Amino acid sequence: MPTKKIEEAEEVTRCPECNSGHLSFDYERGELICEECGLVLTDQMIDQGPEWRAFDVEQGEKRARTGAPMTYTIHDKGLSTTIGWKNKDSYGKSIPTRNRAQLYRLRKWQRRIRVSNATERNLAFALSELDRMASGMGLPRNVRETAAMVYRKAVNKNLIRGRSIEGVVAASLYAACRQCNVPRTLDEIANSSRVGRKEIGRTYRFMTRELKLKLMPTKPQDYVSRFCSELKLSGEVQSRAVEILKDAQDKELTSGRGPTGVAAAAIYIASILCNERRTQREVADVAGVTEVTIRNRYKELTEKLGIKVEL
Strands, DSSP E only, in the chain? Predict the structure, then answer.
C-alpha cells in the first residue's frame, strides 16, 4: 500500500486520539491515518501536488489536471459523459432493482443526445473508422490526432459531399503519416481500409489541393528503420543503408524513383555487406515492391556508387 509521510499538514498535524505526530497518507483510499492507533482522520483528501507555473489564466486552464485530456479523435472532443453499463453507484454498491429501469432509460437517452446533428453523426462514424485503421497499422497517438484534425478541416470546408467517408478518412490518415514523418505507402493504407488504392490517391490529391496542405515528398531514409526492424536486421545494417542512400541522394540517383524501392535496394546491399544477408524475396515482401524493382535499383546503386558486392 503506497503511503507518504505527512510532516507538516496544513490542517491536522497531530492525532486527536493518541496525540501522536506519526501521520501517513494513503493514496489508494485518499485517507489520512495515524500510524500509532490506526485512527482515520480524513477520508476524502485530494493530493494537490506541486503547483505548475502559469503566466496567465489561459495557460493555467490548459495545465489543469482534472479530468481526461481533450482529444480530436472523438467527435465531441472527449468532453461528454457516459453512463457505465455496470449497475453500480459511485461507491461501488449495486443499484436497487426498482431503479434499474430508470437507469436504463437514462443510459439510452444519453447515447441518443451525444450525437445531435448530421455533422456530429458523420464525425462519430468517421473518427471511429480512423481509430480502427490506425490501431490496425500500429500508428502512434500524434498521427491519429493529426489525421482527425485534417478530417475535421475537410468536414468544415464541405469536402465530404459526394465522396465516401472511408475514402476521406484513409486520405486524411495518409496525409497525417506524411506530416508526422511516419510514412506509410498507399498500399498499406488501402489494406487497412475498405476502399481501393486508386480512390485514396484521388481523394488525397483533392484534399491537399483544397486544404492547401504543404507536404514534402517522402524520402527513402524514412522507410529504412521500419523495414530493417521487420527484417530483424541490426543497427549496423541500418546505418550502412542510410549511408548508401545519402550517397545516392548526393548523386541524384533517388529522384524520379519510388522511395520504397530505393530503400529496399539499399537495405539489400547493406545486408550483404554486413554479412546479414536477406533474399530479394524477403526484402520485397516487407517493402511491398517486386523483386524486379529491387534488382533494377540494386544494379543502379552498385554501378553508380562503385559498390562491390560479392554474391
Answer: 3-5, 23-26, 31-34, 40-42
Please check the confidence at residue 121 and state whether its pLDDT lies above 80. yes
CATH number of 72-89+97-216: 1.10.472.10
Residue pLDDT, tens place only, 164-203: 999 999 999 999 999 998 888 898 899 999 899 999 999 9
Structure-block grid coordinates of residue 104? 436504463
The pLDDT tens digits of the residues spanning 220-269 come to 898 999 999 999 999 899 999 999 999 998 888 888 888 999 999 999 99
Amino acid at 18: C
Nearest-angstrom CA–CA distance, 250 and 221: 13
| Distance between CA atoms of residues 16 and 36, nearest Å | 12
Q: Helix axis angle, 141-156 relative to 197-211, nearest 10°?
A: 70
Neighbour count for residue 181 (Cβ, 10 Å):
11
- CA-to-CA dists, residue 45 to 28, 92, 292, angstroms: 11, 19, 68
**What is the residue extent of each domain of the chain?**
1-66, 72-89+97-216, 221-305
Name every residue whose Cβ is closer than 8 Å to that of residue 285 and which is 6 or more positions away in sequence: none
